[in-house]
Design goal:
By secondary structure, this protein is of the alpha+beta class. It is about 55% helix and about 15% strand.
Length: about 110
């Protein structure tokens, strides 16, 4: 854990463990990152959201980024591979975030 991550975790704990997207309690202690790619044949864009999320926001964000990656992510040679990596990365973060909530007794 680097210094910035420690500071973010301390700030999150001081906020009462709220979801950083909707403000609901409880949120996962694990900081979750979801990424998506928009392929535009000759260029591409990346978007991401990162924070401590409740299960509702985690479900919603994962599904939103999954569908957007599926529809707009693969348009281009590099974008195809980046989107594939993002699929697996998002799925892993989603499962680990849900596991963290379950382990804490909030899932």
């Amino acid at each position: 854990m680097d210094q910035n991550e420690g500071m973010r975790r301390a700030a999150w704990k001081m906020s009462g463990g709220r979801c950083q997207l909707c403000g609901k309690i409880p949120a996962s202690q694990r900081e979750i990152t979801f990424s998506r790619n928009v392929g535009m044949l000759f260029q591409r864009r990346e978007y991401s959201v990162r924070g401590h999320m409740c299960s509702r926001c985690m479900h919603r964000t994962f599904l939103q980024y999954f569908v957007l990656n599926l529809c707009f992510g693969w348009w281009g040679a590099i974008s195809f591979w980046v989107t594939t990596v993002f699929f697996f990365q998002n799925f892993w973060n989603y499962v680990m975030g849900l596991f963290e909530l379950w382990k804490e007794g909030h899932g």
